Amino acid sequence: MIRIPCPFCGTRDHSEFAYGGDGSITYPSLDAPMQDWHDAVFQRENICGVQVETWQHVNGCRMWILVERDTMTHEIHSVRPAHAGMAKALGAAS
Amino acid sequence: MTRFSAWNIFWQGMSGQKGWTRQWRDPEPKPHYDVVIIGGGLHGLATAYYLSKNHGIRNVAVLEKGWIGGGNAGRNTTIVRSNYTQPGNREFYEHSLKLWEQLSHDLNYNVMFSQRSHIALLHSPGAVDAASRNYNTMRLTGNADAEIWSLGQLKETVPHLNYGGDARFPIMGAAVHKRAGTARHDAVVWGYARSADQLGVDIIQNCEVTGILCDGGRVTGLETSRGKISAGKLGLAVAGNTSRLWNMAGMSHLPIESHKLQAFVSEPLKPLLDQVVVFGMGGAHFYISQSDKGGMVFGGDLDWYKSYAQKGNLPIVQDVAEAAMSVLPCLGRVRLLRHWSGVVDMSMDGTHFISKTPLDNLYLNAGWNYGGFKATPAAGTYFADLIANDRPHKVIANHDLKRFERGIQLDERGAGPDPKLHG
């Protein structure tokens, strides 16, 4: 079991969370060229090592978080809220 | 090498079994090969075999960092079927199934291919409709082996499924594919290795590729743990680690994520299940068959998060156990013998790639999701054809890396561009 320190709820089992995907992707503007959208939707770096990824605490606070995790050892290096502004509004550590 | 035959087995039996020779050589790597395949799994070995058999290219090496068949070839649940409906996929897998039917004769090696039927359970009127649509598509496009069974017919054939009124998902019928079945995974590896070796292919084990040398848009050779090897053409068949090799060749980004998939085998039982039975309902997924040794071989969903680690996590063990109990309650007191995990290439649409690449003489075989084992003979055939002729066969015209740029997704499940959803 991976243990994820949720910035809102504290450390919980990963089975409380749903895995999102690659957190390094930023979607282009709606009028961006097709190639940019193709790359954002279909292309992945697929890092063997530390990557940033999104998880959602579905069986907890339901917040989306950004997790820096090693894809070989599963060690977690950092966790932060995906929406910094919302975390601030809720008064949680960001 | 001795050819296997009834006479030879009789003769060796009479002469103390002393006349058998090695099944394949253990050669030192040569400085140059016309074609080098990285990955001594099923697809790599099959590709080397068909390169030499179908295309007469004999100066071929298969490089394997561990031992052949030690990766996903030895970690799958050995199911073979061809009930696909997307154009391209259905021809590909139907060709594969036809090759499976002749494989033991072709390789002179008993791969223990057992066409015992693939029974997908249906639990709602919507599921029956969807399966009927898919199976009608199969019938209309040349694969007549597709049947929808009523509950009565299913009960008669597999009487010990959970038909109780208290079942969480009552069974309404089944989609049945009779020519599907299982094969002995090790035998397939060894059969291809033996036949490829006989045709002159060098199988080089304990040879890890540490670098891919490129010059002017071409691959020139490889740095390996057993020295430098120059290559006329290079094929990658390393499912799970495709992106790492891709980076070594100086490129980045592929429509692939590496995920891990667990499988399980129970203690050996007396004959219990004659078919492959599959359960898929919303978030639950489960498939089971019985091996010739008697072990119940089964699996379920991915571990849901990206990973290169060949180790499974416990929540999925619980999920799979729950699914097992809901489908076959008689398994309740059966003990688990082993469970393990393999790293699979999950692609963006759930379909594989047999493709040319931005480098002139580099070819890619990747993205097999859950389905690499059944694809082995066709994957080897078409990948060898691509490498030998430097153009894709028409069957794999849309199995290239650029299909998404053309707006084509071969998405059997309709799950969308999220790799973890294509289980």
What can you see in these coordinates?
Chain A has one domain: Folate-binding superfamily (Folate-binding fold). A four-stranded antiparallel β-sheet of chain A has the order 3-4-5-6. In chain A, strands 1-2 form a two-stranded antiparallel sheet. The longest helix of chain A is centred in the middle third of the chain and has 9 residues, at 34-42. Chain A is built from two helices and six strands, in the order E-E-E-H-E-E-E-H. In chain A, 17% of the residues lie in helices and 35% in strands. Chain A is α+β, with helices and mostly antiparallel strands and 94 residues long. Chain A is globular, with a radius of gyration of 15 Å. Chain B is α/β, with parallel strands linked by helices and 423 residues long. In chain B, 28% of the residues lie in helices and 27% in strands. Chain B has nine helices and 18 strands. In chain B, strands 1, 2, 8, 9, 10, 11, 17 and 18 form an eight-stranded mixed β-sheet that branches. In chain B, strand 9 and strand 10 form a beta hairpin. In chain B, helix 3 (89-107) packs across helix 9 (372-389). The longest helix of chain B has 19 residues, at 89-107. The radius of gyration of chain B is 22 Å and the shape is globular. Chain B starts with 5 loop residues before the first helix and ends in a 34-residue tail after the last helix. The model of chain B has no long low-confidence stretch (mean pLDDT 96). The chains are: A alpha+beta (94), B alpha/beta (423). At the A-B interface, strand 3, helix 1 and strand 4 of A face helix 7, strand 12 and strand 15 of B.
